Amino acid sequence: MIPATASVRSICIIITALISIFILHFVGLYAGENYPNSLKVTATAYNSLAYQTDGHPTIAAWGDKLKPGMKAIAVSRDLIPMGLTHGAKVKIDGIAGIYNVLDKINRRFSKRIDIYMGNDIKAAKEWGKREVIIRW
User: Fold this and answer.
1) Which entry of 12, 27, 43, 64 is 20 to 30 Å from 76 by CA?
2) Which residues lie closer than 8 Å to 27 by C-beta, 6 or more apart?
3) pLDDT at 135 over 70
4) Which helix H or strand E contains 115, and what residues bound it?
5) CA distance 93 to 17
6) Predicted local confidence at residue 32, as pLDDT
7) pLDDT tens digits along 55-96
8) In the chain, helix, strand, coil percent, each to 5?
9) Does the global pTM surpass 0.90?
10) CA distance 86 to 3
11) 73 bridge partner residues
12) Are the C-beta atoms of residues 83 and 35 closer than 8 Å to each other?
């Protein structure tokens, strides 16, 4: 017969291991390490300025209100059927944080994202146009 303390100790070890696995799984998801899809796209940047939008610089295509500091992107319409729909969480390789799909790009573009940079015109110009890998 196994002493009761050994059984309790074994159960505690198993529970601790399961909790650790659970936490590591979700930390990995949050960090963008376990996203099932990835794609190389052209990435540009935009600001809350009327001349860079359709005339409503703080209202995104799905009706979301954009505010400086938000981690938001616009996607070309060919990416929407791939799962990059409104509210999708996107990791952009080389950039910290997780971005939300809140806007759409003009129909003439494909395989493109536009990173929202609030009112920081200098940052948007410095970003320019780059090829990046996105994960979602």
Assistant:
1) 27
2) none
3) yes
4) strand 112-116
5) 31
6) 45
7) 788 999 999 999 999 999 999 999 999 999 999 999 999 999
8) 30, 25, 40
9) no
10) 56
11) 101, 115
12) no
Distance from C-alpha of 29 to C-alpha of 17, rounded to nearest angstrom: 19
Pairwise CA distance, residues 80 & 101, whole Å: 10
Q: Options 1.20.1250.20, 2.40.50.140, 3.30.70.260, 2.40.40.10; which CATH number does 38-135 get?
A: 2.40.40.10
pLDDT tens readout for residues 117-128: 999 999 999 999
Per the model's pLDDT, the better-predicted residue between 48 and 12 turns out to be 48
**Gap between the Cα atoms of 39 and 25, Å rounded:** 22
Cα–Cα dist 40/56, whole Å: 29
Number of H-type helices and E-type strands within the chain: 2, 6
Question: What residue segments make up the domains of the chain, in order of their start?
Answer: 1-34, 38-135
